[in-house]
Amino acid sequence: xxxxxxxxxxxxxxxxxxxxxxxxxxxxxxxxxxxxxxxxxxxxxxxxxxxxxxxxxxxxxxxxxxxxxxxxxxxxxxxxxxxxxxxxxxxxxxxxxxxxxxxxxxxxxxxxxxxxxxxxxxxxxxxxxxxxxxxxxxxxxxxxxxxxxxxxxxxxxxxxxxxxxxxxxxxxxxxxxxxxxxxxxxxxxxxxxxxxxxxxxxxxxxxxxxxxxxxxxxxxxxxxxxxxxxxxxxxxxxxxxxxxxxxxxxxxxxxxxxxxxxxxxxxxxxxxxxxxxxxxxxxxxxxxxxxxxxxxxxxxxxxxxxxxxxxxxxxxxxxxxxxxxxxxxxxxxxxxxxxxxxxxxxxxxxxxxxxxxxxxxxxxxxxxxxxxxxxxxxxxxxxxxxxxxxxxxxxxxxxxxxxxxxxxxxxxxxxxxxxxxxxxxxxxxxxxxxxxxxxxxxxxxxxxxxxxxxxxx
Length: 457
Description:
Order of helices and strands: EHHHHHHHHHHHHHHEHHHHH
Strand order of the largest sheet: 1-2
Distance between the termini: 33 Å
Strand content: under 5%
């Protein structure tokens, strides 16, 4: 074993595809239907607002990462510009959120495997996928990059095929399938039939879906040219959000009425079925399997690197900053495996909805992490405002107005959870978790100082 040494072996194509595929998952393929069914055509606003927020936040993260590429990413920047308590808190919060996401993806993968192989229990399938992807991550960062590259490529190809098909339906290029035009925007109760509340609730789901964009900034720290690669990756945020999310959701809304709950339960399958693809359900199930694998693979990577960074900065046991000869923090991955196995065991033994309820809190955790990014970026810009900066140096757009807009938007969406009976528990759980993590920083620091003071000089 060597210590504190990651390998810079990711290629530019790996970083670019990680950035492209990081936000394409079940939140788009499945979650979009539930948002449309609740908000009507105004679901476009949920995706537009969520897209604007993630674009602004990722550009802020990109500016910080281009100045100081680091595997700890936003946790490191929060420590540097807001104080050690902030870096500790956001790092552990992200680690905890990642654990929930990884375990959720394992369960979903186990369910799909069970559908294809009925003799394989869901629990066994979940454990099998967890072991498989952790083994892949443990081999080398290059193996992670290659697997994520091809998984993301398949997801991007699916979205492009879907959007192409949707456009052919909209323009009436299929016999027997009438061109809907703009009719579905207003024909069934208006553009916003259920008011603004489901639109706000939809933003939370969208942000949860877009959570994963930040992984590109983490991965850039192990690329061959981190400063150049992170800018290239972050700049694709706008393209992928506007085209893949807002574009594909707009096509869904135009092609089928929001009142068709049955079709929206699996909207992408329904669209393929409209033009006679009889095997659409099987194809989409395979696409979902690939998507879940990609998300799980990415968060296993970012989770281990975040713990590695926390350990390097003295916020976690030094064991987790040790790497193998290929530059992989294997002890951090081992802890991830133990924790995920524990969560899976509790989930399958208890057979209740507690785990799924906690999983729904992930969107709120992402928003808290992004709030730290916004404030850290603002603090950084205030510190360097007197410094001479090269005209070629990357800068986030519209500073400081973008910080204010993004902060107010995220704060409003978070607070709205407290007044919505369906999300009140998630709000309380998120607030309690954040407070406990912050408190743990001061408790562990006090204990450390006490033990140092008790040692004889």
